[in-house]
Design goal:
Elements: E1 13-17, H1 21-26, H2 32-53, E2 57-64, H3 72-95, E3 99-103, H4 111-124, E4 131-138, H5 140-157, H6 167-173, E5 184-187, E6 206-209, H7 219-230, H8 240-251
Parallel strand pairs: 1-2, 1-5, 2-4, 3-4, 5-6
Helix pairs in contact: 2-3, 3-4
The structure holds 3-methylbut-3-enyl trihydrogen diphosphate (2 copies) and magnesium ion.
């Protein structure tokens, strides 16, 4: 069954915290890495669906700054899986006109992973369809402190002055500079937290949580989440009356 989605009311930018791979595997007496492998299949489905639906920006939390503290064997397996995924999928990204982007502290990633990423980013740089952003070695606090340091350095160098510092300027110094803020955030596996993802950018994002573990997240569930987004009234601090007046104006 497919849900009826209004193509004019989709999130421009969709962000996803893909969680629950480990538990999915452990519940089946499998190794955690098998859960990550199955999770990669869900990634393929979501990327394909999002691009088909015409979502402009898809951002996936794939590996957090804090995930480096997991057992080294799991970290290594995740890096290998990431490389394999990027290599395998680049041809499909070309066919679907999808452009790769990465946010996070890339200097912490292994050299071979960075080479694979550079290659995929360069190959897809001219694509004009969906922008697929992978958050890798990403932490919101780390991103904010890097941006603050960068701004401070530019003030010292004289390229900007203290009075130039504003919300818009800060935005441009973040890893996500150039991307609109997410309209919708999905987190799987039942955890109701942000886990250091996009702290600044999520200020007015609509949040959606499902108990389903990431490897079990299906097309139907994806459409159900998007339908839920379409039922929401986003206010941005205004009153309901102000919003309906605006709606009247935009319908004229
Ligand atoms: C999400 O699944 C993938 C990564 C964080 C890399 P988890 O590995 O966190 O799965 P759980 O939360 O342990 O079930
Ligand atoms: C968040 O999931 C990071 C990713 C999905 C990559 P975690 O599993 O690391 O988050 P916590 O530890 O449950 O908060
Ligand atoms: Mg988890």
């Amino acid at each position: 069954m497919t849900m009826l989605l209004d193509p004019n009311k989709l999130p421009v930018h969709l962000a996803i915290i893909m969680d629950g791979n480990g538990r999915w595997a452990q519940q089946r007496m499998l190794k955690r890495i098998v859960g990550h492998q199955r999770g990669a299949e869900t990634v393929k489905m979501v990327v394909e669906q999002a691009s088909l639906l015409g979502i402009k920006y898809l951002t996936l939390f794939a590996f957090s700054s804090e995930n480096w503290s997991r057992p080294p064997l799991e970290v290594r397996a995740l890096m290998t899986l990431l490389k394999k995924y990027i290599r395998q999928e680049t041809a499909r990204m070309m066919r679907k006109n999808i452009r790769y982007n990465v946010i996070g502290n890339r200097s912490e990633l292994p050299a071979d992973v960075n080479e694979t990423l550079d290659d995929a980013i360069a190959k897809t740089a001219g694509n004009t369809g969906m922008v697929l952003t992978l958050a890798l070695s990403y932490g919101g606090r780390q991103e904010l402190s890097r941006a603050a340091a960068h701004i401070a350095q530019d003030v010292i160098d004289g390229t900007i002055s203290v009075n130039d510092i504003s919300v818009d300027l800060f935005d441009r110094y973040l890893d996500t500079g150039g991307l609109p803020d997410p309209d919708f955030l999905i987190r799987t596996s039942g955890e109701m937290r942000i886990s250091n993802f996009l702290l600044w950018q999520l200020a007015y994002t609509e949040l959606y949580f499902t108990d389903t573990n990431w490897p079990d997240f299906t097309i139907n569930e994806f459409h159900k989440a998007l339908a839920n987004f379409q039922s929401r009234e986003r206010r941005f601090g205004l009153t309901g009356d102000q919003l309906s007046q605006r709606g009247d104006l935009s319908n004229e």
